[in-house]
Amino acid sequence: MITAESVFREHLGNALSDYGGHLYMFVEALRAGDIPDEQHARVPGLIEQLKQYLKSHDQPEEDSLLLRYGLIVPGLLNGYVPPITGVFPERGGLYEDKVMEIATLVLRLRGALDLTRLAMPQLSPDSETLLVAAAERVRTPIPDEQWISWHLEIEENEVSLLVAQALQYLDDSSKENKRIGTNVLGALAAFRRDGLGIHASELVQHEEYGHVYRDASSAVAHQLIEQIEKSTVAPGWLLMSLAWTRGEAAREAFVRWRENPPTWATGRFAELETFLRHAGWSLDAQGKRKDLISLQCYRLNTTADKDTSSEVPCRVSSGDTCGHCGGPLAWLFDFSVLPAQLFSGMRSMAPRRVLACLHCASYGGTVYSKYSEDGSAVVLPVSGKADFPYQDDRPPCTLYLRKEEWTPFAAAEPFGISNTLGGIPMWVQGAEFPDCPECQKPMPFLAQFDCSSQKPCEEGVYYAFFCGTCRVAAVSYQQT
Fold it and tell me: Per-domain residue ranges for the chain?
């Protein structure tokens, strides 16, 4: 049985990634034998100086391993051999700036150590064992499919316990603990079929925002609306939260504010529908809802397995070249061999192949193409154009479509899901649904290609969109 306690511990383990650089450096120093023992002639005095500094700053520390490691960091960073000589008097000793730097690092490792004790209570309590285990946990994260399945399969009574634990962390004064609470709620909202369900009502008083309110009840939506309408300043986090409730109450409110702008709807908040796009929908000129994502979502894996039925060639050259940069035009996706039922409903008018210049999409802006029923396409002149000639290589590859439907909002939790057909996009920089250059309406999302899923690892994500009415496809790109 998947329990709230076990899932929460995995979230604690995931939070160790924030300490990854410090943990790796510690393990390397440990294995190299660079951390001096307590019997080293000069170490006791140096440790005492460091302890006094930490105590005077209300951060007392008694862990000898952390303190001894802290003493070698200046030497490690400056290439001294052995590293402990970096704090010897002949190299300036523990002057204020140096001891401040050491203290900061010791406190970071203390945070990692405390977190590891909570995440891995079965381990020996000694610091060395825990810090080595923490570094290994960061190096070998939980596979995202397993990670998501835990949140999908946990029973409702355990969800209640998990939410309660997350809310306790949200109320903690520690920034790190608040982030853990937010991550737990965000994962449940993104991965579970019904989001947080009844638990969304508990979030308003904690000022949580965004996709944690996904598909919340009309009662929760009205709570948010009431707070928004009481506001005298632009309530961005409330507007985003309301958009994510994705229901009729939200639609009516945004239509009302569009027709009669409140006093706070000034500047960047005047474009209220920007918030709707983050949640995967928009309003047409008559105020009717238009979905920008398909809830029929499928995973595209980089490797085939027994459950995979269809190959999806990606980034394959079309044989033509870009008239602007001279690089190859490529089919970002070729869905032509997929079963017809995958292109029903919202995707019934979508292209089976998506053409683009990937170089211009990466460096010049969105690339648009006109597609035909016979599978052909041509790039439109309104497309973005890179300001330097083609010079990089995005080799062709194959993704493999999984048979079973996938939870459509999994990618709302950043950097969790990479390649999908349908669902919500995994925005790297923010929601940017392009407008069709012909009808000026927002284009629904079709699929995404995460370049980091390739080996060797590449950077960035390509997004494909389409306008079925005008038969126009679009490819955009974001990177960190």
Answer: 4-139, 194-290, 297-478
Kindly tell me the sign of the dihedral angle through the C-alpha atoms of 197, 199, 204, 207.
Answer: negative
Give the angle 75-78-83 at the CA atoms, nearest 5°.
20
Among 318, 320, 355, residue whose Cα is nearest residue 446: 355
Pairing of strands 289-291, 367-371: unpaired
pLDDT tens for each residue of 33-79: 999 998 888 899 999 999 999 999 999 999 999 999 999 999 999 99
Cis link prior to 141 (omega < 30° from 0)?
A: no
The helix (run of H) or strand (run of E) holding residue 299 is strand 297-301
Residue 388: count other Cβ atoms within 10 Å of its Cβ. Answer: 9
Taking only the tens place, the pLDDT of each residue in 143-198 is 888 999 999 999 999 999 999 999 999 988 888 899 999 999 999 999 998 999 99
- Scanning 156-272, the segments in alpha helix (DSSP H) are 156-170, 175-191, 218-230, 236-245, 248-259
Q: Are 366 and 466 in contact (CB under 8 A)?
A: no
The length of the chain is 480
Q: Are 84 and 36 in contact (CB under 8 A)?
A: yes
Instruction: Confirm if 383 and 357 have CB atoms less than 8 A apart.
Output: yes
**Which pLDDT score is estimated for 271?**
79
CB contact at 8 A, 454 and 434: no
How many Å apart are CA 427 and CA 445, to the nearest integer? 12
**Backbone dihedral region of 280: left (phi > 0), alpha (psi from -120 to 50 degrees) or beta?**
left
Omega into 456 within 30° of 0, i.e. cis? Answer: yes
Provide the b/e sequence for 210-225 (b: ≥16 CB within 10 Å).
Answer: bbbbbbbbeebbebbb
Full-model pTM = 0.88
Chain position carrying tokens 């023992």: 37
